[in-house]
């Protein structure tokens, strides 16, 4: 016979067991929630997210079937997203050829079972599978499926955010709901909200992705349009430029002094437009991946010197001194001469344009496996806030517009793309507005 | 592993979540329960009346920890016994 002390100890033991069980229940619930939370953070795509969620819940709680549907309000339909089932359920489904993975549940508002779930966000429960798929699958098959997989209760919870129903989760159990233990009940009520938030986030992600794709497509169409439009503009412009040049050269007879300046203006403007259109065409070629490079072995120093010589008259006209300095070295590179010429021309042209008075110094050197060109001016300089986006499209310093109205802000972007296509680097240095700037290009020297 | 071996293993594992390693110690005291490796959860219900051995295992926990432990045992194996003929289910789990 148990003594009073022994009985007392047994009572303490039982009480401790109850407390431990409560803790174990909470522990298991928290572990499951943590797992679901991790899934929701790491998985963005709705189908992948729901697949991992249903598998985790099915494994943790041993339900016969766990399924997630999304609610399409426009069609009043529940679209299947993912299912996970027990071996029992899978076997029964295969033997009965019962497939509802791709079947939407339509007209929920007309369904006495789904209407309170979708409209009023109530929980639905039934002991008959045919209440769920009453129109989609025949009753006899559903009854056999229910019997063979031992489903006793089916619970359907709305997944909603701020009274907006995103979908439902279907849980098929082999027991009555009341026979679930505390862990199972607590876990179910806890994970519904986690799933709703995760689903909401993943649906938003999907919508953003779709919008992004659409934008990319529109951007591509825009680029194509600019390309076509630019090509169409170039032909008449070439004619305007050519004829005005011929008129200035006297091909059609000597021009009177009164008409000479307007024709010169036509020629200068058409030249500026040709440059702008060429920039646009380069951009479209780059963005459509159609820019072609013809690499040959060339001497970088000779090329740079030629460009400097070509720009001397423009510098003189502007009253800017253009200096050139080259250090010793081989200067052999593998490059597309036309593209590198364009890059150097652009940098020197910019330096002359943005230097109201003073000097532009061009220096080249060869060493440490690279050839280097530096174009230093004493011009308007580059404010710190512009520096970081200087090589982006349509970026110009505020002061730049006051000095060079015709600039498009595309030249440096094109130059950067061309330099990078040669596996080189381009960057700018400036101590700020009014303090001049230096543009540097480095290209890999040819080995051997 | 027979279905009754699985039931015994599942019961001990579920009790372990609540009372820790004591669950394994108590299981080893039950005649007919053979635990060869706790880490591998290798439990064998020895031949003879296997149902009765499982009943004794359930009773062992019930005797020490009361009715709550019985509910834990039933809940732990509910997914297994649902597909068993009632005559094969140990009476303590009905």
From TrEMBL, chain A:
Q: Which GO terms describe its molecular function?
A: phosphorelay sensor kinase activity
Which EC number(s) does UniProt give?
A: 2.7.13.3
Task: Tell me which UniProt keywords the record has, alphabetically.
Answer: Kinase, Phosphoprotein, Transferase, Two-component regulatory system
Record keyword Ribosomal protein present: no
Write out the catalysed reaction: ATP + protein L-histidine = ADP + protein N-phospho-L-histidine
* Record has Kinase as a keyword: yes
Q: What Pfam families does this protein's entry cite?
A: HATPase_c (PF02518), HisKA (PF00512)
SUPFAM superfamilies tied to this protein:
ATPase domain of HSP90 chaperone/DNA topoisomerase II/histidine kinase (SSF55874), GAF domain-like (SSF55781), Homodimeric domain of signal transducing histidine kinase (SSF47384)
Q: Which Gene3D superfamilies match?
A: 1.10.287.130, 3.30.450.40, Histidine kinase-like ATPase, C-terminal domain
InterPro entries, per the entry: GAF-like_dom_sf, HATPase_C_sf, HATPase_dom, His_kinase_dom, HisK_dim/P_dom, HisK_dim/P_sf, Sensor_HK_Regulatory, Sig_transdc_His_kin-like_C
Q: Which CDD domains match?
A: HATPase_EvgS-ArcB-TorS-like (cd16922), HisKA (cd00082)
PROSITE patterns the UniProt entry points to: HIS_KIN
Q: Where is the Histidine kinase domain?
A: 228-447
Q: What is this protein called?
A: histidine kinase
Which organism encodes this protein? Candidatus Vogelbacteria bacterium RIFOXYD1_FULL_51_18
From TrEMBL, chain B:
Superkingdom of origin: Bacteria
Which species is listed as the source? Candidatus Vogelbacteria bacterium RIFOXYD1_FULL_51_18
How is this protein named in the record?
Uncharacterized protein
What is the taxonomic lineage of the source species?
Answer: Bacteria, Candidatus Vogeliibacteriota
């Amino acid at each position: 016979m148990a003594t009073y002390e022994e009985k007392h100890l047994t009572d303490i033991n039982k009480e401790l067991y109850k407390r431990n069980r409560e803790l174990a229940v909470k522990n298991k619930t928290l572990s499951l929630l943590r797992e679901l939370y991790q899934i929701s953070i790491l998985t963005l795509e709705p189908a992948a997210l729901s697949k991992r969620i249903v598998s985790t819940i099915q494994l943790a709680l041993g339900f016969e079937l766990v399924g997630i549907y999304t609610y399409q309000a426009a069609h009043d339909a529940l679209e299947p997203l993912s299912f996970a089932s027990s071996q029992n359920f899978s076997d029964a489904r295969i033997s009965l050829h019962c497939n509802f993975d791709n079947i939407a549940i339509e007209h929920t508002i007309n369904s006495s079972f789904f209407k309170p779930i979708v409209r009023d966000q109530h929980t639905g429960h039934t002991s008959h599978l045919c209440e769920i798929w009453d129109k989609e699958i025949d009753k006899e098959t559903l009854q056999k499926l229910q019997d063979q997989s031992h489903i006793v209760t089916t619970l359907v919870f709305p997944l909603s955010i701020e009274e907006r129903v995103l979908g439902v989760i279907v849980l098929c159990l082999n027991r009555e709901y009341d026979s679930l233990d505390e862990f199972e009940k607590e876990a179910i009520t806890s994970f519904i909200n986690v799933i709703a938030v995760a689903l909401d986030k993943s649906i938003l992600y999907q919508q953003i992705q779709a919008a992004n794709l659409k934008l990319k497509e529109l951007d591509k169409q825009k680029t194509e349009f600019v390309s076509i439009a630019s090509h169409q503009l170039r032909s008449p412009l070439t004619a305007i430029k050519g004829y005005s040049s011929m008129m200035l050269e006297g091909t059609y007879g000597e021009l009177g002094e009164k008409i000479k300046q307007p024709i010169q203006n036509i020629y200068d403007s058409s030249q500026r437009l040709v440059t702008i259109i060429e920039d646009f065409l380069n951009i479209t070629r780059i963005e459509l991946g159609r820019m072609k490079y013809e690499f040959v072995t060339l001497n970088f120093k000779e090329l740079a010197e030629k460009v400097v010589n070509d720009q001397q008259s423009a510098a003189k006209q502007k009253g800017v001194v253009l200096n050139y300095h080259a250090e010793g070295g081989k200067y052999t590179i593998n490059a597309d001469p036309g593209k590198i010429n364009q890059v150097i021309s652009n940098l020197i042209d910019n330096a002359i344009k943005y230097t109201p008075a003073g000097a532009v110094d061009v220096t080249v050197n060869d060493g440490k496996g690279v050839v280097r060109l530096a174009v230093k001016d004493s011009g308007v300089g580059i404010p710190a806030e512009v520096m970081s986006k200087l090589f982006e499209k349509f970026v110009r310093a505020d002061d730049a517009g006051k000095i060079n109205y015709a600039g498009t802000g595309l030249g440096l972007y094109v130059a950067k793309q061309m330099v990078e296509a040669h596996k080189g680097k381009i960057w700018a240095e400036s101590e700020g507005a009014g303090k001049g700037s230096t543009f540097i290009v480095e290209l890999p020297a040819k080995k051997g | 592993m027979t279905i009754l071996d699985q039931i015994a293993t599942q019961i001990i594992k579920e009790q372990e979540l609540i009372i820790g390693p004591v669950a394994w110690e108590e299981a080893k005291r039950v005649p007919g329960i053979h635990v060869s490796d706790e880490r591998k959860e290798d439990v064998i219900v020895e031949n003879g009346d296997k149902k009765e051995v499982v009943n004794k295992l359930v009773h062992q926990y019930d005797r020490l920890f009361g009715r709550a432990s019985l509910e834990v045992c039933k809940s732990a194996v509910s997914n297994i016994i649902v597909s068993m003929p009632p005559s094969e289910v140990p009476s303590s789990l009905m």
